[in-house]
Amino acid sequence: QKEVEQNSGPLSVPEGAIASLNCTYSDRGSQSFFWYRQYSGKSPELIMSIYSNGDKEDGRFTAQLNKASQYVSLLIRDSQPSDSATYLCAVMLDNYGQNFVFGPGTRLSVLP
Amino acid sequence: SAVISQKPSRDICQRGTSLTIQCQVDSQVTMMFWYRQQPGQSLTLIATANQGSEATYESGFVIDKFPISRPNLTFSTLTVSNMSPEDSSIYLCSVARSSEETQYFGPGTRLLVL
């Protein structure tokens, strides 16, 4: 069973704080990892991809990957109310074509 | 990225009928996928639409219920057959190119079956 788990939500943070979203995966051979943001009633939008261990920063977003621990996270600095959405972790499995397995998502609320 | 459109954007259908959803991309793509997202849930892959051959279905999804076509590299359809209220969901098309591993999603089709 190929599984992707995310920390249960909803997660509420005050405006300006750091939001931390976590994801673990079961397939040790996974190589590619993605974070999507989904606003209510909208389709998922890619915000970050990460392929190597360590940190990857893009503006206020930082993705962190630890393949040994099978763990990937997304940090959102200086959180804004517009960041309120569901964040989906997606894992591309080894030898699975370009198919993704999605986690259940974490709903984030940034309170003004 | 890619510009992806889906038709219809939403529909209300009667039990026992079928609905065909179209997915159109503005440029050729290698891979096209169909997902289902039930209310409050994450995305579940239904199948990979293969150009010129039969789609590859995930466990729990069968061709008789979800026939898929992909006549070229920019277009695919998903049919939801003999619908029941349990098929009420958002159906999403996504695409990927062989040159990049990222998937991009269409706007989705909201289906309500009465």
Explain this structure to me?
The complex is a heterodimer of chains A (112) and B (114). Chain A is mainly β and 112 residues long. Chain A contains no helices and 11 strands. Chain A has strands at 4-6, 11-14, 19-25, 32-38, 45-50, 54-58, 61-66, 71-76, 85-92, 100-102, 106-111. Chain A is globular. Chain B is 0% helix and 50% strand. In chain B, a hairpin with a 2-residue loop joins strand 7 (68-72) and strand 8. Classes of the chains: A mainly beta (112), B mainly beta (114).
Give the termini distance of chain A in whole angstroms.
40 Å
What multimeric state do the chains show?
Answer: heterodimer
Number of strands of chain A: 11
The radius of gyration of chain A is 13 Å
Largest inter-chain interface?
Answer: A-B, 21 and 19 residues
Task: Give a short account of the largest sheet of chain B.
Answer: 7 strands, mixed
Look at the helices and sheets of chain A and give the structural class: mainly beta
Q: What proportion of the residues of chain A is helical, as a percent range?
A: under 10%
Low-confidence stretches of chain A: none
Range of strand content of chain A: over 45%
Which H/E pattern describes the elements of chain B? EEEEEEEEEEE
CA distance, first residue to last residue of chain B = 36 Å
Shape of chain A: globular
What is the mean predicted local confidence, pLDDT of chain A? 92
> Strand share of the residues of chain B?
over 45%
Please summarize the sheet with the most strands of chain A: 6 strands, mixed
Shape of chain B: globular
Series of H and E elements of chain A: EEEEEEEEEEE
Average pLDDT score of chain B: 93
Q: How many β strands of chain B by DSSP?
A: 11
